Amino acid sequence: MKTRFHGSFTQREPIPEAGIEAALAVLRHGRLHRYNVAPGEVAETVLLEEEFAAYVGAKYCLGLASGGAAMACALRACQVQAGDPVLSNAFTLAPVPGAIASLGARPVFVDVTEDLTIDLDHLGQQARASGAKILLLSHMRGHICDMEALMALGDGLGVRVIEDCAHTMGAAWKGVPSGRHGAIGCYSTQTYKHMNSGEGGFLVTDDAELAARAILLSGSYMLYSRHSAAPGPEVFEALKLDVPNVSSRMDNLRAAILRPQIGLLDDRRARWRVLYQAMEAGLQGVPGLRLIPRPQVEDYMGSSFQFLLPGWQAGRVAALVAGAAARGVELKWFGAADPQGFTSRYAHWRYAAPEPLPQTDRILAGLIDMRLPLTFTPADATEIAAILAEEVPRAAADIPADLVPVAAAD
């Protein structure tokens, strides 16, 4: 009899008790708005910004309503205009090109490599061809590229880097926290990320003008002196009448929920690593399956797990997804003809008028993705890997190759 996994791939850990108590205190006094404080009181949002800036080693931090709001705010702070080309990964999630499109700017997609990081050769080609001066770099599913090489390339091309760290909050490259290589780092605290406030996000930078622009954009109402993880008032004076208000700063309730979670990030990274490595051990050597190598210098957050099925046609991949689902294992497939849930890809975003990218299409056609919530135990990860180690060869063998349909063209 086939074993079946009974865990939930969407159930997260509860909010820490300290966060619950802090949130109840905010609800009891009713001062949820970021600037609504009692005499002598420091807003929860201000304290959160101070503490997150200290965690990542940034001079300035701004709490925002979502990760998408953080990216859009970062692009506006960099003075991206309607019609401007903005480089970004072809392998990412919809909020990334969505942030670009929200300004009326034009996403210019860059190929992904088989290690699921941005293709630096293609990045150079796209930058030169488009004339883009901004890269919104997505560390998609927690895979960090060679950041020294990327920054050197960007510097040589005059391209400013904004890092989307929705999947790498708490990760590092050669000891440098993710989000601290580029001009701005953006993070998400959506429920499925590494800190949970339902929705929310951060923007960090060491650039005083960028920080001031971002704070004004977020809706400071000329109350910027109440920000502590911010530049001095003299920086705002030169900008305050020229930067529009696009209200998007985080509220005190979400900040209260998040503050105790900063101190849990390092422990969560260690626990995710155990789950991730249990998956790797269980799938090592499975025929037809390629694991994604993790560089020794990458201190990653293993909150999700990916593998490739190189050369598999669509019917075989669909059979694997269905076979795993029948045994309680939820897989996401980035090669499906139609977008489902969180697996839309660049070719589905028609508003961006994407050019075909054969290399990316080939890689995503066999890309499987899976959440690894911290509600799983190492034994759960081992059981999931064992199920997949059985289902992958079964899917590869069950369907005659000449009967397998090719994925529909987009």
Which characteristics define this entry?
single chain; about 400 residues; alpha/beta; Aspartate Aminotransferase, domain 2; Aspartate Aminotransferase, domain 1; 2 domains; globular
Number of helices: 13
The H-level CATH homologous superfamily of the largest domain, spelled out, is Type I PLP-dependent aspartate aminotransferase-like (Major domain)
CATH topology of the largest domain: Aspartate Aminotransferase, domain 2
Instruction: Please identify, by name, the CATH architecture of the largest domain.
Output: 3-Layer(aba) Sandwich
Largest sheet: 7 strands, mixed
Number of domains: 2
CATH class of the largest domain: Alpha Beta
Radius of gyration: 22 Å
Parts with pLDDT < 50 across at least 5 consecutive residues:
400-410
The largest beta-sheet arranges its strands as: 1-9-8-5-4-2-3
Global mean pLDDT: 95
Termini gap: 40 Å
